[in-house]
Design goal:
401 residues; alpha/beta
Length: 401
């Protein structure tokens, strides 16, 4: 690689290490004797250079313990999906554009190409052809694995993402979805507050992309009956990305990469000396097995607009789920409440702690971890089972398969 000039060094000093790697490559290709304008030239960027830049950003986002444990097992794909939205596009490339004419759109295309190639590691010698002027990438070929992955993504989208206009459930359908929860909730239902939520949500699904799919809004109540209730895990609101939300807090459908919070939940289960937990193989994040055993996986807000966390908090859902916690607290006994983070712990005031067990810990999100709080050390799952046995109930099998 050519020696970088003092002028380029000043530019490079403003870049992070991984951004500078990409800058070095472009600058060295630019330095052709007698030619200081490469706007109309094509530059062939070795895949390894671009991959190294993006991989470094990914590694900075993945917790150290996770990298050592899972990347060795070729699960890098899950983490790329979890963290790729957090990978920053090099802002300084805007300034370099005057020299290399590389647009932010080109960088995004490179990211996409790199992600595809990281997921298909046997494609080691492929190069990306970049037209600096147009900003287009020209991959030489598409591997069979890439085609299969795209087909799977389409199938997931068809299965999970439901848009408006497909026959939104009637209010009577909502009541039927509640199953045996209708009886303990009858005083709340008599106020017609849920009917008002229904009418508002129906318009939301008509005019926006909303999660979860419209037939899974009350999935937690369909899978966990009031009569069989043993434990409650409270989340905030559904996942905001396509194909993830399925009406159960922290859970994602099979075939969808496991989110960071759920990776930490699995780590806590694996680290608990009083449990025999096996990570699912192949990896998945569907917690339906917990729900059918009596674990109510409920979000405080049951719907969300795509890409907008807590966007439906003002539609009345919080009052509805407060009422759910109240009727459990007042009309059941021997239920274990697992409250993670301040949002969930705000529900504690509705629980009669003489008749129930309340367990509190930090949120399992990787962003909530610090020296004092590490969710991977949480023992709530075995503690909940101990309480259930003490109160004459059968314990939960926390394996997800």
């Amino acid at each position: 690689m050519d020696e970088v000039s003092p002028k380029s060094s000043r530019k490079k000093s403003r870049l992070s290490e991984n951004q500078a790697t990409l800058f070095d490559f472009f600058y060295s290709n630019k330095k052709v004797k007698g030619d200081h304008n490469i706007a109309n030239k094509d530059i062939t960027i070795p895949q390894e250079v671009v991959k190294d830049v993006i991989q470094k950003q990914i590694e900075m986002l993945i917790p150290k313990e996770v990298k050592e444990d899972d990347i060795k097992s070729n699960q890098t794909e899950d983490y790329i999906e979890d963290y790729k939205d957090e990978i920053e596009t090099p802002k300084e490339l805007n300034k370099i554009n005057k020299t290399a004419k590389l647009s932010i759109e080109t960088t995004k295309n490179l990211n996409d190409e790199v992600n595809a190639n990281i997921r298909t590691p046997n494609k080691t010698n492929t190069e990306v052809k970049v037209d600096i002027k147009s900003g287009e990438t020209k991959p030489k070929e598409r591997k069979l694995e890439e085609v299969k992955r795209e087909e799977e993504e389409v199938r997931n989208e068809q299965r999970v993402e439901v848009r408006a206009g497909d026959g939104f459930p009637s209010y009577e359908d909502w009541l039927n979805d509640l199953g045996d929860w209708k009886e303990p909730l009858k005083e709340y239902l008599a106020t017609n507050k849920l009917k008002k939520i229904h009418d508002s949500i129906k318009e939301m699904y008509k005019n926006h992309t909303v999660f979860p799919p419209q037939d899974l809004i009350f999935n937690a109540f369909k899978k966990t009956s009031f009569a069989n209730l043993k434990a409650v895990i409270v989340g905030q609101d559904p996942y905001i990305k396509k194909n993830q939300a399925m009406g159960l807090s922290f859970s994602v459908p099979k075939g969808i990469p496991v989110p960071g919070s759920l990776h930490n939940i699995y780590a806590a289960l694996a680290n608990d000396p009083n449990l025999s937990f096996k990570k699912p193989n192949p990896a998945h994040g569907d917690l339906s097995n917990w729900a059918t055993q009596g674990v109510l996986l409920i979000n405080a807000v049951l719907t969300v607009e795509e890409g907008k966390s807590n966007s439906h908090k003002g539609l009345g859902w919080s009052e509805f789920t407060d009422e759910v916690i109240k009727v459990i607290g007042n009309k059941k006994k021997g239920v274990a409440f697992l409250l993670w983070g301040k949002f969930a712990q705000a529900k504690k005031k509705f629980i009669n702690q003489r008749n129930h067990k309340v367990l509190e810990y930090c949120h399992p999100s990787p962003l909530a971890a610090n020296k004092k709080n590490d969710f991977k050390k949480c023992l709530h799952f075995s503690q909940a089972n101990e309480y259930l046995l003490e109160t004459g109930n059968s314990p939960i099998n926390w394996n997800v398969d």
